[in-house]
């Protein structure tokens, strides 16, 4: 995963490998900005790719525990783009799980324009 903050406070999360430590360091740096932001992700539910192993799950869970307050304070939500109507139900099911895990809203949008509107709403709350 990489975080692209060129359009901050809209931060694009893109999948590009599996270096959990580097990914968490990048997320920590984003939180260290101490400014509210929304994550946009175009990762498709069900994309082919390597699933995280148990050690990676543990690293993420421990990092999340240690950063719980900063996540609650600065991440206003995440919006997953899913233009495929057939995949939308799977994306929404995943969003419910992700919201419970991360502690911030996770929404699904059909296109980038809708995602940006949702992001503005989340940032204004």
Describe this structure in words.
- The chain has 125 residues and is α/β, with parallel strands linked by helices.
- It has one domain (2-124): 3-Layer(aba) Sandwich (Phosphatidylinositol Transfer Protein Sec14p), CATH 3.40.525.
- It has five helices and five strands.
- It has helices spanning 20-32, 54-66, 68-74, 85-102, 112-124, and strands spanning 2-7, 10-14, 37-41, 75-81, 106-109.
- Strands 1-2-3-4-5 form a five-stranded mixed beta sheet, sandwiched between helices.
- The longest helix is centred in the last third of the chain and has 18 residues, at 85-102.
- It is globular, with a radius of gyration of 14 Å.
Quick take:
The protein is an alpha/beta fold and 125 residues long. The protein has a single domain (2-124), classed as Phosphatidylinositol Transfer Protein Sec14p (3-Layer(aba) Sandwich).
């Amino acid at each position: 995963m990489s975080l692209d903050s060129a359009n901050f406070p809209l931060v694009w999360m893109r999948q590009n490998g599996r270096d959990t430590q580097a990914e968490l360091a990048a997320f920590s740096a984003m939180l260290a900005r101490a400014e509210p932001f929304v994550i946009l992700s175009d990762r498709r539910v069900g994309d082919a790719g390597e699933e995280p192993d148990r050690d990676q799950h543990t690293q993420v869970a421990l990092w999340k525990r240690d950063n719980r307050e900063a996540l609650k304070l600065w991440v206003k939500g995440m919006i997953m783009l899913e233009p495929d109507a057939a995949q939308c139900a799977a994306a929404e099911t995943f969003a419910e799980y992700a919201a419970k895990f991360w502690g911030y809203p996770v929404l699904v949008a059909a296109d980038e324009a809708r995602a940006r509107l949702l992001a503005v709403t989340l940032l204004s709350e």
